[in-house]
Design a protein that fits this description.
This protein is mostly helical and 207 residues long. It has helices spanning 16-37, 43-53, 56-65, 76-80, 87-104, 107-117, 119-123, 134-144, 186-204, and strands spanning 151-158, 165-172, 177-183. It has nine helices and three strands.
């Protein structure tokens, strides 16, 4: 378990491979749960439902609830810069822990663990809702108001090729709004930037 908590800033022997495995295990278990719970929901909406449960924001929040932020092993520089509270590090560490538990037990046991810790998130899903992603929601909102579509700009990329972090700005020229997002893929970063843009638009309208 120590390896699952070890960030690459601390050691060359770190949790990145376990994170890769845990990410796949999480997707498989939650895909199966949603598949069984909602037999009439199509593939596209099942994917969006899963994404509403497994994303950087929700995983990092769960990691904090479990106290993982207090256990992460970081290099001195990363620790001084507040890495224990960085969403991407927390989410990745939780995935690594899932991978480690899977290797130390079996699929049935890790599936039971995942179903337990994600129980509230699973139960909060309402199949009657449209689970559009934030980019789609933002685009539809701007089109309804006859505004130009948002622009997504890659601002910078950090980290090694196998563990990059992308930083994206979402620019809504008609409103003079620029919001930022980051994530381990460009898609995740764009979704985060779009989510922040939706919040800004709602705040500006007093909603």
């Amino acid at each position: 378990m120590e390896l699952a908590l070890t960030h690459r800033s601390y050691s060359a022997e770190n949790n990145e491979r376990l994170e890769f495995l845990g990410d796949a295990v999480l997707d498989l278990v939650l895909s199966d749960v949603l598949f069984q719970l909602y037999p009439s929901v199509d593939e596209g909406n099942l994917s969006l439902m899963r994404a509403s449960i497994v994303n950087e924001r929700s995983l990092s929040a769960l990691a904090r609830q479990l106290g993982i932020n207090e256990q992460i092993i970081l290099g001195e520089g990363e620790s001084l810069s507040g890495g224990q509270q960085r969403d991407s590090i927390l989410a990745n560490t939780l995935e690594a822990i899932v991978g480690a538990i899977y290797l130390d037990s079996n699929f049935e046991k890790i599936a039971a663990v995942i179903k337990t810790i994600f129980n509230d998130s699973i139960n909060s899903i309402d199949p009657s809702l449209s689970y559009k992603d934030d980019k789609s929601t933002l685009q539809e909102l701007l089109q309804q108001q006859q505004m130009n579509l948002p622009e997504y700009r890659l601002i910078k990329t950090t980290g090694e090729k196998h563990d990059q972090q992308f930083f994206i700005d979402c620019v809504i020229k008609d409103e003079g709004i620029t919001t930022s997002g980051d994530g381990k893929t460009i898609k995740i970063a764009e979704q985060e930037a779009a989510r922040e843009a939706l919040k800004r638009l709602a705040d500006d309208k007093g909603e």
